[in-house]
Amino acid sequence: PPIQAICDLYYENGYTSNQFYPNYVRDSEKNSILCQLVVYEFPKSHIENIIIKGNTKTKDYVILREIPIESGDVFSKVKVENGLRNLYNTQFFSAIMPEFVSGSEQNLVDMIVTVEEGATTSVEFGVTFSGVTEPGSWPISLFAKWQDSNLLGTGKTISASIEASKTKQAIGFGYTER
């Protein structure tokens, strides 16, 4: 809807306190409706605080580094949406709920991000039976892998794996830091 697009344009540019009043005038003779949007503009809003709730494992700084807006910045709907997308992409959370409340003064907004943490540790293992190819050969291969993608809540990934068969034996270790 065009009115929502106009409101979104204001929100994208930091005008969270504006008031919008659509006025519809129906003209039955011309079979038309005139929509007049009255906008009361207020100064741009700034982020006063970003408050993180619900995280028991993940450190606050790991969450905050994914949100491209900081305290003192002009409110930006696009930056907030990008931050929420970044948080979902970490795959650390099963739910992310943003909320915006009035700050300590007019045109200051507190951004409250409530997260629900999901599982970040995985264990994989398997057995493959390749069939009997040679008499006396061992036709089974085994593998196992363990990975924690949010090590101690720091956003770092650590993993260990092992693979064993008659023709291949491998041990692997991995560490990744964003």
What is the C-alpha radius of gyration, as a whole number of Å?
27 Å
State the distance separating the first and last CA atoms. Answer: 40 Å
What's the helix count? 3
Query: Which spans of ≥5 residues are poorly predicted at pLDDT below 50?
Result: none
Q: Could you report the average pLDDT, rounded to the nearest whole number?
A: 92
Number of strands: 9
* Helix content percent band: 10-25%
> Which strand order does the major sheet show?
6-7-8-9
Strand content: 35-45%
Order of helices and strands: HEEEHHEEEEEE
Structural class: alpha+beta
Instruction: Identify the overall geometry.
Output: elongated
Major sheet: size, sense and barrel closure?
4 strands, antiparallel
Q: How would you describe the overall organization of this protein?
A:
It is a single chain. The chain is an alpha+beta fold. Helices cover 17% and strands 45% of the residues. It has 3 helices and 9 strands. The strands form 3 sheets. The chain has a 4-stranded antiparallel sheet, with no helix packed on it. A 3-stranded mixed sheet has the order 3-5-4. A hairpin with a 4-residue loop joins strand 8 (157-164) and strand 9 (169-176). It is elongated. The protein starts with a helix and ends with a strand.
